[in-house]
Amino acid sequence: MDSDKFSVAISPKVYIVGAGPGDPNLLTVKALKLIQQADVLVYANSLVPPQILAEMRPDAEKVATANMTLEKIVPLMIAKVRSGKSVVRLHSGDPSLYSAIHEQMVRLSEAQVSFEVIPGISAFQAAAATLQVELTVPAQVQSIILTRISGRTQVPEAEDLASLAAHRASLCLYLSARHVEAAQAQLLQHYPPQTPVAICFRVGWPDEQIKVVPLDQMKVATVTDNLVRTTMYIISPALRAELACSVGIRLRG
Ligand SMILES: C[S@@+](CC[C@H](N)C(=O)[O-])C[C@H]1O[C@@H](n2cnc3c(N)ncnc32)[C@H](O)[C@@H]1O
Q1: Residue spans in the chain of domains classed CATH 3.30.950.10
Q2: CATH 3.40.1010.10 domain locations along the chain
Q3: Could you say which of 142, 209, 215, 239 would form a disulfide bridge with 195 (CB–CB 3.0 to 4.6 Å)?
Q4: pLDDT score at 205
């Protein structure tokens, strides 16, 4: 790659950057170049692999946000930009999905601090690639729904899981493993019990596990292997071949 043709000039503002699902090789070129140049990197400790942090300038400041609320994080970013620093705020996957960037952008706008959003690969894209499936196979399914079940964050009634299940589309279910029993029950209201479900645990990380099971086994398979932390489900007729030909389990390494 001719790196000159891919140059990115960094300036004092907040860069809201999608870090992808875990595999450092899935960062965009722009994300990597910003990380390499930033004065300050703000990131959630558990969601960013060490290889990405290793790309930072040795003199750059790292701010791990594990114990910080947005009330602390946003003023810190504003203060850094006002002191002339460039801030990279890393989010897992793509920032447009379940990243609470809306609140952050509102506050940055109110403070008249410039920001830019750099997309990343979301968990559903990385999982589909690992599974080697197309989620929009002609004559089977032509729509993808990205959603979650209600938890601490309430899903609007018009989007409840059972009503979305009625479309029988390829449905990518985020943030729902702790409510898997309720999710399975709602999905079964419309999908047949044999519909394939890919349980995608920590895609792109060294301990990645992806299992393909029938929908009526979704809860048991999740609970048996304790796949509740950082898990996304893909429920899709397009996974039928995966369910039939795999023994239902794929393990990395
Ligand atoms: C706060 S949301 C962030 C989503 C992220 N913005 C994205 O685009 O993937 C966290 C949820 O995303 C999913 N997720 C994120 N990274 C994942 C990964 N590497 N493997 C499986 N699921 C993942 C899980 O459903 C997890 O509960």
Answers
A1: 123-251
A2: 3-118
A3: 215
A4: 95
What are the beta bridge partners of residue 17?
90, 118
- Ligand 1 pocket check: which of 98, 149, 225 to mutate, most ligand atoms within 8 Å of Cβ? 98
Instruction: Enter the CATH code of domain 123-251.
Output: 3.30.950.10
Q: Is the pLDDT of residue 253 over 50?
A: no
User: Which residues, listed in sequence order, are joined to residue 251 by a DSSP beta bridge?
Assistant: 209
What pTM value is reported for the model?
0.93
Query: Can you give the pLDDT at residue 2?
Result: 59
SS3 state of residue 176: coil
Q: What is the pLDDT, as a whole number, of residue 5?
A: 79
Q: Summarize pLDDT for 11-46 with one digit per residue, the tens.
A: 999 999 999 999 999 999 999 999 999 999 999 888
209 CA → ligand 1 middle, Å: 14
| CA dist 26 → 87, 180, 205, 214, 239 (Å) | 21, 28, 12, 29, 23
With a Cβ cut-off of 6 Å, ligand 1 is lined by 21-22, 91-94, 97-99, 122-123, 174-175, 200, 202-204, 230-232
Predicted local confidence at residue 243, as pLDDT: 76
Average pLDDT value over all residues in the chain:
93
Please give the order of strands across the beta sheet that includes 196-201.
144-148, 170-174, 231-235, 196-201, 209-214, 249-251
Nearest CA to ligand 1 atom 1: 98
**Cα(177)–Cα(194) distance, integer angstroms:** 19
Out of 3.40.1010.10, 3.50.50.60, 3.40.50.2300, 3.40.50.1820, the CATH code matching 3-118 is 3.40.1010.10
pLDDT-derived band of residue 224, with 50, 70 and 90 as boundaries?
A: very high
